[in-house]
Design goal:
There is one protein chain. The model has no long low-confidence stretch (mean pLDDT 95). The chain is an alpha+beta fold. The chain has a single domain, classed as Peptide Methionine Sulfoxide Reductase, Chain A, CATH 3.30.1060. The chain is built from five helices and eight strands; from the N terminus they run βαβαβαβββαββα. It has helices spanning 11-19, 41-45, 65-74, 103-118, 142-145; strands at residues 2-8, 24-32, 51-58, 83-84, 87-88, 94-98, 125-128, 132-134. The longest helix is centred in the middle third of the chain and has 16 residues, at 103-118.
């Protein structure tokens, strides 16, 4: 099992998006790479410095990191700074936060490909994970609990794959 942390704007939609994939074992939303203390959602909304992030635990034999990142870039605007869709602020910055050194070259390869497509540098951070604090329980699987909730990810992207048994 491997883990990667993906900041892609509102974490509700990112979690729902990654939950659909067969190689994804589990997800958890939280706050990453801010000050070294657990913030509340209200503090994050008041620019605590943390990014809304989804922790993705995946099985590399069924979902490569490269493929996972291809899906990630499918649902973000990689040129937007501190904004995705209608959500704006430092907590909505985009970033790939890795936990293992072997992940960095794979991430760099995908970033290079995306920069070539975009024709310029990406606004997506590439950093080691410094910290991650799970979000409050009401944020976990939020769009499953509240199907009408807002997210910048179009509905059509939630049906790309269906896990067996789902």
């Amino acid at each position: 099992m491997s883990t990667i942390y993906l900041a892609g704007g509102c974490f509700w939609g990112m979690q729902k998006f990654f939950d659909q994939f067969e190689g994804v074992f589990s997800t958890q939303v939280g706050y990453a790479n801010g000050p070294d203390r657990a913030p509340t959602y209200e503090e994050v909304c008041r620019d605590s410095g943390h990014a809304e992030t989804v922790r993705v635990d995946y099985d590399e034999t069924r979902m490569s990191l490269e493929r996972l990142l291809d899906f990630y870039f499918m649902v973000i605007d990689p040129l937007s700074v501190n904004r995705q869709g209608h959500d704006e602020g430092i907590q909505y910055r985009t970033g790939v936060f890795y936990t293992e050194d072997y992940q960095r070259p794979v991430i760099e390869k995908v970033f290079a490909r995306e920069e070539q497509k975009a024709g310029r540098s990406l606004a997506v951070l590439l950093e080691p994970l410094r910290n991650f604090f799970p979000a409050e329980e009401y944020h976990q699987k939020y769009l499953e609990k509240n199907p009408g909730g807002y997210c910048h990810i179009p509905q059509k992207f939630y049906g790309l794959e269906k896990k067996s048994g789902s």
